[in-house]
Design goal:
This protein folds into 2 domains: 87 residues, Winged helix-like DNA-binding domain superfamily/Winged helix DNA-binding domain (Arc Repressor Mutant, subunit A, Orthogonal Bundle), CATH 1.10.10; 203 residues, 3-Layer(aba) Sandwich (Rossmann fold). 44% of the residues lie in helices and 17% in strands. The chain contains 15 helices and 10 strands. Strands 3, 4, 5, 6, 7, 8, 9 and 10 form an 8-stranded mixed sheet that branches. A two-stranded antiparallel ribbon has the order 1-2. Helix 3 crosses helix 4, helix 10 crosses helix 11 and helix 13 crosses helix 15. It is globular, with a radius of gyration of 23 Å. The protein starts with 17 loop residues before the first helix and ends with a strand. The model has no long low-confidence stretch (mean pLDDT 94).
């Protein structure tokens, strides 16, 4: 039996419109237009003074007709201003879309709208039928090439959570003679390297696939901590972790797994954590709010459906339960402002 709004007296009635459905169906085209403009350097050219299609085409080595059609499409989306002849950047675009500017976010297209995600999304119907990935290559594939781009470009989004992590450990770390840190599935390495930048006594062991570690080490060099970084190459479920460590970080990876598989990884971490050490988990979380108010988390779970065998975004309560089941106590959650990410710290049980 279908439940109609008339039978739900306590809910605000909203009407889905035809235009809203069509907007959703067309949204992928908007993404493709923006990603293409970033790849071709269109915004860079306009910022440099190329204001006509011919000028942009000449500067970037593009076809004039194709450039004109792309510029018109960008204008229709509000990504350029145009009088029908010339094109200018709208207010704010110079900071966000022009390479080299401090606020540039264009490289996140390689993460948020990667070709790997686009290809995997075509398998969504079969993933729903099966309950997990059907892709030949996916997030759990050893040395998956996507993780190289993630390591190179996702640091801009991870930076606030890395700062919250360092803040959460600050008072505990300040009283230690040494701070040996294991960063499991380190990716860009920003979490461990931020701790090292704040704590001169800290040493970081970055664990990830062999194709990802060189990208992480480039970041370590830029942050001035490379001389205190060692690497462990391999699968975090199987590699020799070494240790013991004063802190173990597992950041933005537990959503790739079921709770049972995540607990298995957390128990591995507990096995190499010093008795007075700290466990840190960072992850996307789904809240108790209605799905429409928590869209980012639920949409991310769809990515996990097409890209992993059993992954999904977990709730804060699930993370706390996983940590307790793995033998941790004193679990403390720390919100990351304006983000679906949470940082959780914990210690080993006595």
């Amino acid at each position: 039996m279908t439940l109609h709004h008339a039978e739900r007296p306590h809910e605000d009635v909203s009407v889905l419109t035809r235009a809203e459905v069509f907007d959703l169906l067309l949204a992928y085209k908007n993404t493709a237009i923006l990603v293409t403009a970033l790849e071709l350097g269109v915004f860079d050219a306009v910022a440099a003074g190329a204001i006509s299609p011919d000028e942009v085409a000449h500067r970037q080595g593009l076809d004039p007709r194709g450039t004109r059609l792309l510029l018109n499409a960008l204008s229709s989306l509000g990504l350029l201003d145009s009088d029908g002849v010339s094109y200018l950047l709208p207010v704010g675009a110079d900071k966000l879309l022009v390479r080299g500017e401090p606020g540039f976010v264009g490289d996140m297209a390689k993460v948020m709208a990667s070709k790997w995600e686009w290809d995997a999304l075509t398998t969504l119907p079969d993933a729903v039928r099966r309950g997990g990935t059907v892709a030949a290559q996916h997030a759990e594939t050893p040395e998956y090439a996507y993780w190289e781009d993630f390591a190179a470009y996702a640091g801009a989004v991870a930076a606030p959570a890395a700062e919250v992590t360092a803040d959460a450990l600050a008072s505990w770390a300040a009283g230690r003679d040494q701070l040996d840190v294991l960063d499991m599935a380190c990716g860009h390495g920003l979490y461990g390297y931020t701790l090292a930048a704040r704590n001169p006594r800290a040493r970081v062991w970055s664990l990830d696939w062999p194709n990802v570690l060189p990208v992480a080490l480039e970041r370590a060099a830029r942050m001035g901590v490379a001389d205190r970084v060692s690497t462990i190459a391999g699968d975090m479920f199987e590699a020799d972790l070494g240790g013991p460590y004063d802190a173990v970080l597992i950041t933005n990876v537990l959503h790739h797994f079921s709770e049972e598989r995540a607990v298995e990884l957390l128990r591995r971490a507990a096995g190499v954590l010093a008795p007075d050490g700290r466990m840190v988990v960072v992850g996307f979380t789904v809240s108790d709010a209605p799905q429409a108010e928590d869209a980012a988390a639920h949409l991310f779970s769809i990515l996990m459906l097409i890209w992993t065998h059993q992954g999904e975004v977990h709730s804060l309560q699930s993370y706390e339960r996983m940590l307790r089941d793995a033998g941790f106590a004193h679990v403390k959650p720390h919100p990351v402002p304006a983000s679906p990410l949470w940082v959780l710290t914990a210690s080993r049980t006595a």
